[in-house]
UniProtKB/TrEMBL annotation:
The keyword 4Fe-4S applies. InterPro entries: 4Fe4S_Fe-S-bd, 4Fe4S_Fe_S_CS, ET_IronSulfur_Cluster-Binding, TAT_signal, TAT_signal_bac_arc. It comes from the Bacteria. One of its GO terms (molecular function) is 4 iron, 4 sulfur cluster binding. Pfam families: Fer4_11. SUPFAM superfamilies: 4Fe-4S ferredoxins. Residues 155-185, 186-215 form the 4Fe-4S ferredoxin-type domain. CDD domains: PsrB (cd10551). It comes from Chromatocurvus halotolerans. Keywords: 4Fe-4S, Iron, Iron-sulfur, Metal-binding, Signal. This is Molybdopterin-containing oxidoreductase family iron-sulfur binding subunit. The keyword Chaperone does not apply.
Length: 307
């Protein structure tokens, strides 16, 4: 990180500290101070001033996880479990999607929203399923808002698009504070507590796979997925960018992503690219595959193929 970037962050944090201290003093003598009283103020300040995830000690990560779980309890009145699940050894995840099997039902989208605690109010979705004319690969001429009750439509095919988990991710290069990076298992992640919301990464992504929280995400308490991961589906705050993370809370425990499990046609194949006996390696070796916008050199770990 450059000195200029560090100075900018330090200045922002000093301004925050001043505002927090002022707000705390203003409510200290009142009967009720839910926003800045007691542990709430300490948790807010702790989150803002905590170190970058990759530089935190185990003890600091444990403190951060405790703050995340307490905030979820205050906000949603639910007890979540937030884990710091590390990447598995000798694993690099990849995805392949059979577009001849995808029928556009969008079950993958719904499953992703539920699994990853996405904002219901803005209808944020990590997966876009595009309705395309047969023979066309022009994403700009696709239909994003088709009626899923009418699919499949004759003369159309369906192309789900999400984060491509690029090996050469332009979003990572664009981030001025290193709030996003690629993990050893190939997943591009975001440190939500380090993101400053500049949205440079959104501009850099050629797949429109990153999404900004313009407001506090709205999720009914009964719909909260309580099994969360620090670099995955834990509740996010307003003002940060988020994206698909291959369901780290599932895949790093040996399970399949929610979208893969929900697909009713078996179009989705997920697995370890380093395992020569995996199904995804079979697809890459034996099927005619392509990647979106491959000419850009982003090296996506997400392939499409047909029977």
């Amino acid at each position: 990180m450059s000195n200029l970037q560090s100075e900018t962050i330090d200045q922002s944090r000093r301004r925050f500290l001043g505002a927090a201290a002022g707000a705390g003093a203003a409510v200290a003598g009142t009967a009720a101070a839910p926003a800045w009283g007691g542990s709430t103020l300490m948790d807010t300040m702790g989150s803002f001033f905590q170190n970058h995830y990759q530089r935190m000690s185990d003890e600091e990560i444990a403190d951060a996880i405790g703050r995340i779980e307490r905030r979820a309890k205050r906000r949603y009145d639910v007890d979540i479990i937030c884990r710091d699940q590390p990447p598995q050894e000798d694993v690099v995840f990849g995805y392949a999607l059979n577009i001849s099997k995808c029928q556009g039902y969008r079950d993958c989208v719904s499953a992703c929203v539920r699994e990853n605690n996405l904002d219901r109010g803005s209808q944020m979705e990590y997966i876009r399923v595009l309705e395309m004319e047969e023979g066309s690969r022009n994403l700009e001429h696709s239909e994003h808002y088709y009626d899923p009750d009418t699919v499949p439509v004759e003369g159309k095919y369906y192309l789900p698009v999400q984060c491509m988990q690029c090996d050469n991710p332009p979003c990572v290069k664009a981030c001025p504070v290193e709030a996003t990076w690629m993990e050893p298992d190939g997943i591009v992640v975001v440190d939500y507590d380090w993101c400053i919301g500049c949205r440079y990464c959104m501009t850099a992504c050629p797949y429109q796979a990153r999404h900004f929280n313009w407001r506090e995400p709205q999720i009914p308490s009964e719909d909260i997925n309580r099994n969360t991961n620090y670099l995955g589906n834990r509740p996010r705050p307003r003002g940060v960018v988020e994206k698909c993370h291959f369901c780290t809370q599932r895949t790093r425990e040996g399970r399949q992503p929610a979208c893969q499990e929900a697909c009713p046609t078996g179009a989705r194949i997920f697995g370890n690219l380093l395992d020569p006996s995996s199904e995804i390696r079979y697809v890459l070796a034996n099927k005619k595959v392509f990647r979106l916008k491959e000419e850009l050199g982003t090296e996506p770990k997400f392939w499409y193929f047909t029977d």
